[in-house]
Structure formats: structure tokens, C-alpha cells
Amino acid sequence: MKQKILHAEDDRMFAYFVRRVLEKQGFSVCSASDGEQAWSMFLAEEPDYCLLDIVMPGISGIDLGEKIRARNRLVPIFYLSGEDFFSVQSEIYGRGGADGFLSKADSIPNLSKSIKGLIKQCKTDDKQSYGQGSRQVDIRY
């Protein structure tokens, strides 16, 4: 059975490219264009992973991560954002419950490799719950 990733992204073109990358990796992708839709999908779909933009209409990615983390301590949450990592670091790893951060500024081909790396790290971690990590992946090789 394919693992499910909830991808919340308001930029339709970027969301399309990310979806293609994830589907080529063998994932089933649930795409949401805003925080409210992503929350509804999270509740209905019970994804294995969450990949969230930070700046979205309605509920922000960080607020969404906080809601997800309150509901499920185990699902890994990754942020894929154009925001500067150092300006959002404390919030995403604090109340946003992040397990990792990826920059939108990096290329799509490297995105595939980076997502695989974060997922592999989560699978090898021996934690009772996620949201305690501090992974930042620099995918500019």
C-alpha cells in the first residue's frame, strides 16, 4: 500500500511540481490549497506524512502544524517554504511541531532527494513522538 503525504501549498504551479515528484517516488498525495482544506483532509485521510507551506490563506502552516501535532503526536511534519529558515526556526520547531524544513528556493530534482532523506531519518529515529527534531535540509548541492 502506498504511503500518503498531505501536501498543503497555495501556489498551484509549485504544488503541481511537488505532487509529480512525490508520485514518482511512489507516494499517494493529498493536495490542499489552504490551511482549512488541509486540516479537513488531515482528519479524513490520516496521512503518513505532512508537507506544509508556512504562508497560506486561512490557517497558516505553523498553526496547521500545531493543530496536527495536538491531534497526532506521531505523524512527521515537514515544512516546505520560501520563508527564511532562521526567521521561522523557533516557531516551526516549537509550536509548529516540525520534524524538518526544506526551502522552496531549491530545485525540484533535489527536492526528491531531500524528502527521501527526511523520511528515512524519521523512520530510523527512536522517538515516542515526532515534532522534537531540528532537521534543516540544505538541498543546494
Automatic annotation (TrEMBL):
InterPro entries per record? Bact_response_regulator, CheY-like_superfamily, Sig_transdc_resp-reg_receiver
- Protein keywords: Phosphoprotein
Top-level taxon: Bacteria
What protein name applies here? Response regulator receiver domain-containing protein
Q: Which Pfam families match?
A: Response_reg (PF00072)
Classification via PANTHER family: RESPONSE REGULATORY DOMAIN-CONTAINING PROTEIN (PTHR44591:SF3), STRESS RESPONSE REGULATOR PROTEIN 1 (PTHR44591)
Q: Which GO terms describe its biological process?
A: phosphorelay signal transduction system
Does Phosphoprotein appear among the keywords?
A: yes
User: Where's the Response regulatory domain?
Assistant: 4-119
Q: Which residues carry this modification: 4-aspartylphosphate?
A: 53
